[in-house]
Structures are given as C-alpha cells and as structure tokens.
Amino acid sequence: METERSFLEYLHSFSETRSPINFMLIYDNLDRFFDGALVTLQLTFLALLVGGLIAVPLAIARAYRKPFLNPIIRAYTYVFCGTPLLVQVYLFYFGLGQFQSVQESFLWDRVLSSPWWCVLIAFTLNTAAYTTEFLRGAIETTPHGEIEAAKACGMSPVTRMRIVVLPNAFRRALPAYSNEVIFTLHGSVIASTVTLQDLLGVGRWLNGRYYLAYEGFLTAMLFYMAIVFLISFAFRLAERKFLGHLRPRETPKPKTAPALA
C-alpha cells in the first residue's frame, strides 16, 4: 500500500514538474470528460435523429416539386444552410428571450429558457436542412428504370416511395450522411459557448481552473478523435453492407488452353 502511494506521489510530482503535459491532472478529471462526452453525444445524436425524421418528408416534397411546400422548404434550407450554426444558437438562446410573448408562453419555463433545449433545437433544424438537400438529390437521381419497373408491377406512388425510392436513396446517401454526422459532432462544440459542459466546455473549465495552456483542449481533441473513428468505422461497415453491389468487380481472367507438346 505504501509502495503504491509513493508511486502515485512520484507520478504526480513528475507530471507537475518534469512532464510537458500534466497527465495526472487529466487522469484525475477524466470523469468530467466522460460526462462532457455524454452531453456531446446526446446533443449530436438526438439532433440527428429528430432532424432526420424531419428531413425525409421535406426532401420528398422538394424532390417532387410540390407547388405550395417547395418554396417554403427551399427558403428554410437556404436560411439554415446559409448562416453559421453559432448565429442560429445565439438567436435561439439570446434572441427569443427578448420577446415578451415568448417569456409569457408555457414553452419558456419548460424549454426555451434552458440552454440545452435551445442548442438541441438549433442543431436539429440545422442538420434537418442539410439532410433535406442531399436526400433530395438522392431521391431525384433514383434510376428511372427502377421506378418504371415498380409501376409495371402495379405499385401505387406511396408503395413505390416506401419500397423502391427511399431505400435506394438512403443507401446512396450514406457517404454524404456520414460527413453530416461528423460535421454535426464537430459543430456541437458551440454548446460550450452557452454554458453547457460538453467536451470542449470541460476542456475550457480544466484550463481555466488550473491555469493550463492546452491540457484540457488536448484531452477534448483525443475524445473527439476517438468518437469520429467509431462513427467512421460504423459507416464503413454500413457502406460495405448496403453499397457492396455497386463496387467494381474484377473480371475473371480467361482460361488459356494448355500448350500442345
């Protein structure tokens, strides 16, 4: 027991005086970084889930040029894709509270006064706008022959959309959607600007409390890299499963007849 205690004291002394990085301080605060990672993952994947559900009907309406809905959806995607995510978060968190009608509504105490909900709403609407646009492109580029074959089988428009068009579009949108997932994860660092203790927020807290230069940011960076690696690996497996039939295959070499003696 004494040997273990002395070894830990030596590690702390070495980390504080000789090491360029105070790794023992990082180790002592790892639980905070895991809590911050949980906040980051909750915001990211809830926004992706709800935003994806919103994007599917909007993409269908955009792809089929619905007369009334298409201009409205196009304006929505233009606003959220054409403005920085930080501005959108600030508008929800700081801007809505300036209206007396919002403060007197039932949503103020339950939702809009909370930074977590404001960030989630901004992230959801932002990722829904981006997902709508690239899913619209995937729907529009569905092979015409598959649609004609579905019509020849007597499928209704709803059945064609459910069985042919959407599964085809989802498969081909996988590479673009993997980028959107990673971009949303990276964009989640904005949550720390409105008092949420996500990964970057914990890194800022560590640096500010102990007057450090980069230990907190370096630890947050390693966490982000690990999460991105897992996301990329999961999407590679999904692409291998759902897009394997689109890969070019090697043509078998022709068999040569044996040479006559």
TrEMBL record:
Top-level taxon of the source organism: Bacteria
Listed transmembrane segments: 37-61, 73-94, 114-132, 181-200, 212-238
GO cellular component: ATP-binding cassette (ABC) transporter complex
Gene Ontology BP terms: amino acid transport
Designated name of the protein: Arginine/ornithine transport system permease protein
Taxonomic placement: Bacteria, Pseudomonadati, Pseudomonadota, Alphaproteobacteria, Rhodobacterales
A molecular function (GO) term: transmembrane transporter activity
PANTHER family: ARGININE ABC TRANSPORTER PERMEASE PROTEIN ARTM (PTHR30614:SF10), MEMBRANE COMPONENT OF AMINO ACID ABC TRANSPORTER (PTHR30614)
Similarity comment: family membership: Belongs to the binding-protein-dependent transport system permease family. HisMQ subfamily.
Annotated InterPro entries: AA_ABC_transptr_permease_3TM, ArtM/GltK/GlnP/TcyL/YhdX-like, MetI-like, MetI-like_sf
Gene3D superfamilies per the UniProt record, alphabetical: MetI-like (1.10.3720.10)
Keywords, sorted A to Z: Cell inner membrane, Cell membrane, Membrane, Transmembrane, Transmembrane helix, Transport
Compartment(s): Cell inner membrane; Cell membrane
Membrane topology (UniProt): Multi-pass membrane protein
